[in-house]
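Researcher: Here's the sequence for the chain we discussed earlier.
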Amino acid sequence: MLAACLLVLAGCGGEQTTPEDGVRATIAAMEKAVEESAIRQAAELLHPDYSDSRHPNKRAAVHSLLAYMRRHRDVHLFSVIKSLELSAANDSARAVVYVAMTGTPVQSLDTAMALKADLLRFEVEFARVDEDWRIVHSDWRRADSFVL
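Model: Thanks. This is the structure I predict for it:
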């Protein structure tokens, strides 16, 4: 659930010139949606067939995200994309993203570490739907540190 939404990660939208740019824009849009508690926007970034180890479908993941957002009004994310791989056909992708999550805005890794942010590692799978990238699957676990 939160894993789906915390994909959160790296600069915002803009012109998508390559498939990699499109995946990065989806990650950034998810990060922004989570920080702004924009559940509808977050749900739109999930593929209709989304699932993860905690949620059998998109609806369950969105419900969990909504519950999380209600419990945590101020969520700020700092993300680092560790790896991003596109399929040969450029119709799917996989990314590993590290996310620092705090209740205070974070502009750097040093700040995140000083705040003792919750550190998470996400493995995210994407599929291209027309010209857009959607999150099909994600799994997350706690991380001891950012692995750069």
